Automatic annotation (TrEMBL):
Alphabetical list of InterPro entries matching this protein: DNA_methylase_N6_adenine_CS (IPR002052), Efm5/EEF1AKMT1 (IPR019369), Mlase_EEF1AKMT1/ZCCHC4 (IPR041370), SAM-dependent_MTases_sf (IPR029063)
Protein's organism: Urocynchramus pylzowi
HAMAP family: Methyltr_EFM5 (MF_03187)
Name the UniProt record assigns to this protein: EFMT1 methyltransferase
GO CC, alphabetical: cytoplasm
Length: 213
């Protein structure tokens, strides 16, 4: 029998406390919304949960993508994770290996990772810190938060700005044409899995000879 805890990323006690505080605030907010007759299905009300469901790949998928990123980046390589924190966490578990990584993420709870955390809002794709130099990453892994062409197109601007060339994109199968159009990436055979089942078929796309086929 599989251990149900396998998919849960292990967070430090500091991160855990921040997470608990976040959930408490969220519950209080949800309570307020409900009492004000707030429409629970309107955009925004499910944002945090949607972001959470979008984060966590299954442990196996996160490990596989992290391993691919390290191989693609090469010795001393630099890896950027855009909206893909579960891959970032797997990379952090590979301690002592010769690569560096940073995470561009909207969810400020990930600021517990210190200087490697860069607040990122895809609607301002080039609003990045000055120390993030153009074409300074050997590979960029991205998982745009929404299945929309606008979101992909804007995230693509960030990806193209940061990468030296290699791109690993995770998004819905329905985005295949847009992914090719905006990033020149092709679908891999590898099928990424999430720890909760998502309604949309999910795929990986690359623009280089990867180990994902």
């Amino acid at each position: 029998k599989m251990d149900d805890d396998d998919d849960i990323p292990q967070l430090s006690s500091h991160a855990l406390a921040a997470l608990q505080e976040f959930y408490l605030e969220q519950q209080q907010r949800e309570g307020m919304k409900t009492s004000q007759g707030f429409n629970q299905y309107s955009i925004g009300s499910i944002e945090e949960d949607w972001q959470l469901s979008q984060f966590w790949y299954s442990d196996e998928t996160a490990s596989c993508l992290a391993k691919e990123a390290v191989l693609a980046a090469g010795k001393g390589g630099r890896i950027a994770c855009i909206s893909a924190p579960s891959v970032y966490q797997k990379l952090k578990e590979r301690d002592g290996e010769d690569f560096s990584v940073c995470i561009l993420e909207y969810d400020k709870r990930f600021s517990v990772y210190g200087e490697e955390f860069i607040f990122y809002d895809y609607s301002h794709p080039l609003d990045l810190p000055e120390n993030l130099l153009p074409h300074s990453f050997d590979i960029v892994i991205a998982d745009p938060p929404y299945l929309s062409e606008e979101c992909l197109q804007k995230t693509a601007e960030t990806i193209k700005y940061l990468t030296k060339g290699k791109i690993l994109l995770c998004t819905g199968a329905v985005m295949e044409e847009e992914a090719a159009k905006h990033l020149g990436v092709k679908m891999c055979k590898f099928i990424p899995k999430h720890s909760r089942n998502l309604a949309n078929e999910f795929r990986c796309y690359v623009n280089y000879a990867s180990g994902l086929d």
